[in-house]
Amino acid sequence: MSKSRQVKRASAGSRPRARSLSATPTSDELEQHLESWSAEQLSQLLLLRPDLSFPSPPCDLAELAFRAQHRSSIGSALEQTTLAENRLVQLLVLGRRNPTDAELEADLPEGLRLDDVLPVLAGLERLALVWRSGARTFFADALVEANPHAGNLGPPLRQCITHERHDYFAKAVQRVRTDAGDAARSVPRAQKRTKQGLIDELTDLLSSPAVVQAALAAAPVAAVEMARKLASGKPVLAGVNPSYLYASSTRQQDHVVWLHDRGLLLSHNYSAVQPREVTIALRGGRPIADLALEPPHLAVQPAPASQVVDADAARQGTAAVDAVAELCTWLAAEPMAGLKDGGLGARALSAVTKRLGRTSEEAACLVECAHAAGLLQWEARERGKGRESKTEYFAVASQQARSWLAMETAERWRHLAGSWLRTALAPGAAGRKLGDDSKALPAMEGPCWPNMADQRRAVLETVLGLGDETGASGASLAPLVHWRRPLLFMREPGVVLATELTLAEASVLGVISHGRLSSFGEALIDGSERLASTLFAAASPPLTTEFTVQADHTVVAIGTLARSLETELALVADIESRGAACTYRITERSLRRALDHGRDVDEVLAFLDRHASRGVPQALRYLVLDVGRRYGNLRVGGAGSFVRCDDAALLADAVSHKRTKKLGLTLVVPTVAVCRLGPDQLLDGLRDAGFLPAAFDARSSSAPAGADVIELRAGHRDPNAGDSSEVGLLEPFAGDLRYNLLDVFPSGEDGAETVASAIGRALKDGSLPPGAVPRGAATGSSAQHTMPDGTSMPFYGFWEGDMSRDELDRMVRNAMANGHVLLVAETWLLEGFGPEDMIPLMPLAIQAGRLHGIDLDNGEPMSVPIPDLGMVFDVGPSSEIEALSEVLDLEGLSSIGPDDALELVSLLLAPRPQRSTR
C-alpha cells in the first residue's frame, strides 16, 4: 500500500485490516465430521451461516469445511452467538488446544459441570464453530484468531516487564511474599536469583489465587477496589501516565503505585495494564468467571390479544403511510431547502411536524423512513452566475414516489416497512441529540451505522421471543437483547440506543403495538413480505367509498378511503386533519387546483354527488360553478423578455420581419411584444435585423421589475401529474455487509428453507449443488479497463472528475440497485496514482453534494465530497472482480492458489446483492 494511503488510513482513525492469513486452517477434521451430518443439519448450517453460500454454493463438503473455518466467516458466525456461547468460546480458546471433556470441565467456573454446558456446546456445534468427537472438543485455529481479546485479559506478565531492571523483580517478589505471608510458602523460590529466575518466581506467585488474595488483604482499600474492577472489566487503566508508576518514596502510599510495586499493575505499550495471571487469579483461577448460562430476568406482563394488537398496529401503519403520502405530495409541489451542511434542520422539521399533525419525533422519523425507502431525495439547484453562483440542495419527492403513491395502502406499507427493516440508517435518531453537548441530528442526513440493520432485526427477534407477553421498553429489554447477541452490539449505536430507536420506529410504522409484534410484523422480519402485506390488509379497517360534505364546505371521511377516491379528493380539497376521521376543506384554491389538473366543473360535481352520502350543499354547488365560470379568463404564458414601443407600426414591422422570426416575438398589445429569449439575446437579434433597440431601464419607468419566465405552476413536481409513465420502485441498498440466502438464490414463495434444503441434499449426496460453480471455472466480466499502471481489470462504468454529474448519479444508482462495488480515487491521490490508492466503496447514496458509502477496507461509513472525486470505477459484483486482490493489496494471498485467492476475496469483500422481491 502506498505511503499516502497509509497516512490517510491512520488519520481517519480506522481500525487496521488483519494482515496475516498465514494460519489458514486445514479442514480435514471438520470435513470428516460434516460427513456424519444429515442433509437437514447441513441445510440448517447454511441458514444459520448464509455467507457460506456466497457468492455461489460450495461444490462439496471439503469446500464447505474450508469456508466454515475461514476467519471472516467465523467472525460473522460469532455475531450470532448468545452471551453464554460467546463466553464458552472464549474459555475454549484460552484453554488447552482441543481439550478432553475432563480438561474442559476443569476450566469451567466453580460449581459448573460438563453437563451444564452441553446445550451451549450443541449450539456452537450447529454453527460448525466447534465439533465434538471421542470425548474431545475440536475447533479451528481461526477461532483463536477471531478472538484476540478473549476473556478481556491483558498481556502475560512476561510481556509487560522485560524493560524492568533486576532490582525491581527482587523487591516485587519480596513485597508479595511479605504481604501474602503463609499463602506464599507453597510457591518455591527461584534457585538462581537472576533476572529470569525472579521473573519465573513472580509469575508463579501471581498465578496463585491464594497468594494474590492474601496480598490484597494487606492493600489499601482503593487498591483492592481497582484490582477487582480491572479483573471484572477491561484490564487497561485509562488516564494513567506510565511514568507515574515509578513515583518517588513520598508517594508510596498511592494505591496505583502500591499495585505496581508488587507486579499487580504494570506498564505496557504506554498504558497501565493488569497482567493476565493476576486477572485469572482474581477470577478464582479460571479465565472466565461466569458463563452467563441463564438470560437476564425481564419483568413481563400479559399483552393484549393478537386481534387487538393487529388492529392497533394496522391503524398506526395506515397513519404512517398517509403521513408519508402527504409528505411526498407536499415536497413535490414545494421543495424544502436543506442546511448548508446537509439535511433538514429544526426549522424544516417544525414545518413538517405542523403539516403532518404528528409529534416532532414521529415527524422526523417518517421523513427519514421516506428517505430510506427512496421516496425523498436531494435536488441540486444553481443560483447566481459566474463567481457569484452557488449550489443549494432541496428535499423533493423522487420519481419513485409516483409509483409508490399509485399503490394500495397495504403495498405502500410493505415497501415502507421493508425498506426500514433493511436500511443502515436510523430514522428514529433524526431530530434527536445523541450526546449531552451534541446538536440535534438533521433529517435526511442522519448517521449510517453498518450494523444497524442487523441490530434492528436482533431487537425485533427478541420481542418476538417474548411470545404473548410484553416487556418491550428500551431500558428493560436491552440486557436481554445483549445476552442474545452480545458481539453484534459492540459497535455503534450500541445495545441501549439501538433498542430504543428500533422500538420507537417500529411503533410509528405499526410493526409493534402494545409492546408486541403484530402478525404482519412477524411475517416481515421472517422475510415473507407478501404475506405481511396480505395480513396488513386483512387487519386494516375496510375501505370506505363515501364521505360527508357539510355546509361549511368541509368534507369528513371516516375510516380509510380507497386509494383512487383519496387521490381524487386530494385534488378537489385541502386536508386539514388526519386520524380516525380525516377532514378536508373545499376552497377556491383547491377547486382551481383540480381545474389545473384537467378536471372540469361537471366532473367535480359528478364526483361529489357520487360519493357524498348526504348530498352536496347548494352553497358548495354555487362555489364550484362560480370558480368554473371565472377560471381561464386570464391567460398566463412564459416570457424571458419584452419589447415596448410607442409606435405600433414599428413594433408590428419588428415582429413580422423575416430576420426576427427566429426570435419568436409575440404581439400581446399593439405596443408590447414578448419573447422567450433573454434580454441580451433579444437585443442582439433585433440589432442583427437592422433595428436600433435600447435596453430598458426599470429604474426610470413603472414597468414590471423583471420579465422572468412565469408559469401557472412554476417548479411544480406533482407526482400525479405530467408524464403518466411509472418509475419502478427499487429496493434501497441496505448498507450492511451481511447476506441473506434469498438474496443470492431467489426462490419465489418457497423461501430460504427450500433453497438451503436443496443445497444440503446435494452436498450429502455428493452431487453438485444448484448454482454452484465448479472449481477452476472462469468468471466472466463485462469489460476490461487498463489502469494507469497497466493493470487490467473488469469494470461496468467509469467516471472522471471533469465529466457530467448526471453520469456519476446514474452509475451510483446502478451500483446501488445491483450490489456493485465502486473503486474511488480522490483528487489529491492522483499524483503517483496506483491501484492500491483506490478505495473500495459500497455506495449508499449521493446527497448534499457528497458520495456516501461503506469503506470495504475497514467496514466504516465514509463520505466523500463530489468535487474531491477524481476517478470512480464500477467494477461490478465481487464475484466477477478477478483483479481485486491486486487492487486492494491484500497480504498473504500470494501463499495460496489464484482460484482460492479469488474465492477468499469474494468471501471477505462481497457486497450484499439486490434483495429479491418475493
How would you explain this protein's 3D organization?
The chain is of the alpha+beta class and 918 residues long. The chain contains 37 helices and 29 strands. Strands 24-29-25-26-27-28 form a 6-stranded antiparallel beta sheet, with helices on one face. It has a 4-stranded antiparallel beta sheet with strand order 14-15-18-17. A 3-stranded antiparallel beta sheet has the order 3-5-4. The longest helix has 28 residues, at 306-333. The chain is elongated, with a radius of gyration of 35 Å. The relative contact order is 0.09.
Question: What's the quick description here?
Answer:
This protein is of the alpha+beta class and 918 residues long.
Structural class: alpha+beta
Average of pLDDT = 76
Extended strand count: 29
Describe the strand arrangement of the main beta sheet, using strand numbers: 24-29-25-26-27-28
Count of helical regions: 37
Distance between the termini: 43 Å
The parts where pLDDT drops under 50 for at least 5 residues are: 1-26, 248-252, 697-750, 776-795, 828-835, 879-918
Instruction: Please state roughly what percent of the residues sit in beta strands, choosing from under 5%, 5-15%, 15-25%, 25-35%, 35-45% or over 45%.
Output: 5-15%
Shape: elongated
Proportion in helices: 40-55%
Kindly provide the radius of gyration, computed on alpha-carbon positions and rounded to a whole number of angstroms.
35 Å
How would a crystallographer describe the biggest sheet? Answer: 6 strands, antiparallel
